[in-house]
Amino acid sequence: MEKASAIILAGGKNSRIGRNKAFIRLPNGQTILQNSISILQNIFPEIIIVANRKEAYREFDVSVVEDLIKECGPLGGIFTGLCHSESQRNFVTACDMPFIRPALIRSLLAESGTYDVVIPEVDGEAEPLFGVYSKNSIPIIFEHLQKRNLKMREVLAKLKVRTVTTETIDRVDPRHLCFFNINTEEDLREAERLASGTGEED
Question: Which residues pair with 86 in a beta bridge?
Answer without folding.
Answer: none
